[in-house]
Structure formats: structure tokens, C-alpha cells
Amino acid sequence: MPMNIAIAGSEELISETLLEMLQERNFPVAQLFLLTALDAEDQDSVRFNSQDVYVQSIGNFDWSQAELVFFAGNGEDYLSAFNAAEQQGCKIIDLRSAEFKTANYGLSLPAQNEDMGAAVHTCPEDLTIIIANMIHPFFEETAISELKIVTLEPVSGYGKKGTEALAKEIAQLMNGRPVENAQFPAQLAFNTVPVDKNAVCLQELQKLYPAEKLHPVISSLLVPVFFGTTVIVDIMLEDALPKEDIIRMLSSRDEVQLSEELLTPVTHGSNQSKVSMQVTMNDTNGNTDIHSFRVMLVADLLRSGKISNAILLAEQFGRPIVH
């Protein structure tokens, strides 16, 4: 049954991609409301399902009109709107950045979410979702004794300012001019920059799997790539499993595709909803049962991370609530 949907924070890049994927998935939308805490008159209208949808001010919105709200807007201006939507009885999917999420609610992943009757569903961060969906099937068979993760992150993780800064720096250097870097602590073009964005992922994995002793180690580098994230994961299992079982578990989700192609952010990480994966087994002794293996992933996290997670959650709600 079609639902009345509001997107709070329509100015965010994540909202643009959310709208694209809702249309791609043919999600049943009866009426769409685009809301912003910025000046609504300065925002462009959006074409959605062959109709022009105009942005409204979130401060004047009547929340009784919405059955499901995707909260994407970051900032203090959205906190009161979040509370108003919750008090009105709207279903809420929280897509905000970690620093703005409400700590009172657990994290929701469709593969392990049992309480679809809850009013608020908080999406973990993109990297957490990719890692959690990958390791979750193993806990039915054994434990993970070692989890080491390396991420190569594109500048699009910082939104439009990241892609614009990289393009500007490349143009300056190619024209023999020094880089004028006012937004980032180091040059982006032709460079790799260590980034410390791992604390949230570590906390969320612990929150999702409190009984597991994962002790994950995550290292991240910002690389001069516009779009597409590369993730390399080394996994040590407590109990060895057959090779075919490991492959089956890793490829059990619809959004994952095993590939023998050369995986790069350009070819497999831009405007892709699938997560491309390659697996390397440490079977130097010819054993059929494996304790450790390496997984390489290339993904467009904007499409395959929390937006995809949010739409899967929304699809599980069933009938819309009635105010």
C-alpha cells in the first residue's frame, strides 16, 4: 500500500540518492514531502515519479500528513522536528550523521531486525553496514577471532565540498600553480591522507554484536578518487569452515556480487548498487577447511550503505500506520 513519505533534510546529498533509489525500487509512495531547515525558497524543486515536488520549510510542516519520515538533515535545527515527528506517531528512519543520532535507539539492520513495530529505526554508518552484513552469517557457525579492516575512501565521503576541492587542486597542479588548500588538513590531489573516522564503526559493531569478541582494527586512508570505496578485510575464524561454505556465506546477500574482474573504484564503485567482492583463501597447505581469508570489496557506499539499508527497512514495515 502506498505511503505518505517525508524526507527531512532535502538539501543533503544523501537525500538526492535516496529519491533516485526509491524510484528505482518502485517504492509505493502516495505523497512525497521534501523538507528543509534552510530557506525553502532557495531550494530547487525535484522531479519524482513524473511530478514536480517543491521543498517546504520543516518548521511549518504538519507531521500528521506523513506516515514515514527519512531524517537526513544534520544540525540542531532538525532536533525539534525529529521530536515532533515522533510525537505525532510517524515511522522514522534516521539517516543522520553519527553525532546527531539519538542514542536512545538501537541500530537497525533488516537481516537481524526483529522489532519492526518500533517507531524509530536508526541506520548504522555505511561502512558498519557493509562489514556487518558480511560477517553476520558466520556467527551461526563459529566466532570471528580476528577482524582487520583497511579502507581507501574517496573524497565524495565529504560531500560536494570534497569532490570540488579535489577537482580544483588537480587543475591548479596541472597548470603549475601551488595548491590553495583551505578546507582540508593536507593536499588531496596525487596524495594519500590518513583519516580517523573509525571510532563510530567500532562502536556500532560492538553495539550490533555485544556477545562477540571481535576486537576489530580499522585503518583508513583518504585517496585521490572522486567516487567508490575500496575495503580490504582480513578475517580469522575461531573454527575452520569448508571453502564452499565461506563463499556461500559471503555471497548470500542479493546486493553482493562475486567478481573475477579487476575491481577498481572507477569501474565498480561509482553509481553502483551492488557490492563487488573478491575472496582470497589462505590455503597454502591444500586444506579444504579454512581458518583465515581476505575479502576485497569495492562499493559505492552512498548507494549500497545506509540508503539501501533504509529502503529495505521501509519495505518491511508492511501496512502504513494510521494517525
Question: Would you give an account of this structure?
Answer:
This protein is of the alpha/beta class. Helix content is 26%, strand content 27%. The protein has nine helices and 15 strands. It has helices spanning 13-24, 79-88, 126-135, 160-174, 199-208, 243-250, 265-268, 301-304, 306-315; strands at 3-8, 29-36, 46-48, 51-53, 55-57, 68-71, 91-94, 120-122, 144-153, 193-194, 217-222, 229-242, 256-258, 275-281, 289-299. The strands form three sheets. A seven-stranded mixed sheet has the order 10-11-9-12-15-14-13. Strands 5-2-1-6-7-8 form a six-stranded parallel sheet, with helices on both faces. β13, α7 and β14 (275-281) form a beta-alpha-beta unit. The longest helix is centred in the middle third of the chain and has 15 residues, at 160-174. It is globular, with a radius of gyration of 21 Å.
Short description:
The chain contains nine helices and 15 strands.
List keywords for this structure.
323 residues, 7-stranded mixed beta sheet, 9 helices, 15 strands, globular, disordered C terminus
Average pLDDT metric: 89
Name the poorly predicted regions: 319-323
- Helices and strands: which structural class? alpha/beta
Order of helices and strands: EHEEEEEHEEHEHEHEEHEHEEHH
**Radius of gyration over alpha carbons?**
21 Å
Strand content: 25-35%
Q: Sheet bearing the most strands, described?
A: 7 strands, mixed
Q: Helix coverage percent of residues?
A: 25-40%
Distance between the termini: 16 Å
Oligomer: single chain
**How large is the count of helical segments?**
9
Instruction: Give me the count of strands.
Output: 15
